[in-house]
Design brief:
single chain, 382 residues, alpha+beta, 13 helices, 18 strands, 38% helix, 25% strand, elongated, binds guanosine-5'-diphosphate, binds manganese (II) ion
């Protein structure tokens, strides 16, 4: 679950991370009131669950309350990478000397949290990571010991901070790790962490993702979820109990099992198309779940063909076949559907599909080739 910056800075602030004064507003009038209270130049920042706000024009400076109101009028309602801006954060402007990057994520390779830091912080850190990965330092954290002070200090010196700044940096990095662990985060990022012109360090941005699997023990964090601001397809899937991630391609995939879903996406790519989503309907999927899944996939206008890849273990092929037939008749889908169905009650499943005029195959290669051919063939997208 991703949190908004205004929520993340509040939580991280409780762990001692230094943020400038600020408050969130939903109307230009409110933005004006907050700016007037701050009584200094302010930054007006779009609150959306995506990065790159700065580049998209969602972060603007204002010299006084009047200007803050104007900026808020411009930014509220703006569309940033498909997300509507419904709130703005108003914070005091900081005079910046240097912009650093500091973050903690789970690293699957080392199976630990890692601290990442860079002197090239600011709005283009993804670009830095791609083009010049050597500019990003990483330090593995032993989960039993936590981040150690000497590790933080080493990073601070490599960032070419003065000894006094290294002390501040070390406190900030240790607090960041405490919040990462305490909040069960999967990602916790400050970009930029700035050196102010007066030499002190200050956090200016906050990005926080909480591990969904931990939300049962953090009801106060679960309550921060903003369904209005999330991707509508992903939200619907979550409410239906399906594991779904939206992607950019045109082949919708409905698969049982996360590993098989990954393999399905790979094989679609291998034959020259791209998957529109990751979707795991789970084990033992019954007809109504299959219908839900197909409806969800087809509500994405980019989907031009659908591939079912079902391996029947606990899941029964005849159940899935009934689900596909029912879903198709309810949804009047005119996109081609290819079904690969193997395992428990396979023959029965194939017979049900045949009777309904659908073709089912048993090989994954054949299924992927057929769906790509259907996509590129007559009536499909070329
Ligand atoms: P993002 O683009 O979505 O990551 O938004 P950020 O909150 O990180 O802001 C983007 C950029 O705006 C920062 O890298 C800074 O250069 C600038 N910025 C943000 N807050 C301030 C501030 O208080 N003072 C100044 N001078 N620049 C700021
Ligand atoms: Mn940022």
């Amino acid at each position: 679950m991703n949190l908004h910056e205004y929520q993340a800075r509040e939580l991280l602030g409780q762990f001692g991370l230094p943020y400038p004064a600020g408050q969130v507003a939903t109307t230009p009038a409110e933005a004006r009131r907050i700016a007037a209270e701050i009584g200094k130049p302010v930054v007006v920042k779009a609150q959306v669950l995506t990065g790159g706000r700065g580049k998209a024009g969602g972060v603007k400076l204002a010299k006084d309350a009047d200007e803050a109101e104007q900026r808020a009028t411009q930014i509220l309602g703006m569309l940033i990478r498909g997300y509507v801006v419904r709130r703005v954060l108003i914070t005091e402007v900081i005079d910046i000397a240097r912009e650093l990057y500091l973050g903690i994520v789970i690293d699957r390779q080392s199976q630990r949290p890692v601290l990442m830091a860079s002197a090239a912080g600011g709005i283009d850190i993804e670009e830095v990571a791609r083009q010049t990965p050597e500019k990003i330092m990483t330090v593995a954290i032993d989960p039993l010991l936590g981040l150690l002070e000497f590790q933080a200090r080493q990073v601070g010196f490599k960032l070419e901070l003065t000894p006094a700044q290294v002390r501040q940096f070390s406190t900030i990095a240790l607090s960041l790790y405490k919040s990462f662990a305490g909040l069960d985060a999967s990602l916790c990022e400050i970009n930029p962490l700035v050196v102010r012109s007066d030499g002190n360090l200050q956090a200016l941005d906050a990005k926080l993702s909480i591990d969904d699997n931990s939300l049962y023990r953090h009801p106060e964090l679960a309550a921060l979820r903003d369904p209005e601001a999330e991707d509508p397809f992903e939200r619907e899937a979550r409410e239906d109990g399906l594991s779904y991630v939206k992607l950019d391609g045109e082949v919708g995939c409905i698969v049982n099992g996360a590993g098989l879903a990954m393999a399905t996406m790979d094989v679609i790519k291998l034959f020259g198309a791209s998957p529109a989503n990751f979707l795991d309907v789970g084990g033992g999927a019954r007809a109504e779940r299959v219908t839900l899944a197909l409806r969800l996939i087809l509500s994405d206008p980019k989907v031009k063909a659908v591939l079912f890849n079902i391996f029947g273990g606990i899941t029964r092929c005849d159940e899935v076949a009934h689900g596909i037939v029912a879903a198709r008749s309810q949804l009047e889908a005119d996109v081609p559907i290819v079904v690969r169905l193997v395992g428990t009650n396979q023959e029965e499943g194939h017979r049900i599909l045949r009777d309904a005029g659908l073709t089912a195959v048993t090989s994954m290669t054949e299924a992927a080739q057929s769906v790509v051919a259907a996509l590129k063939g007559p009536g499909g997208v070329r």
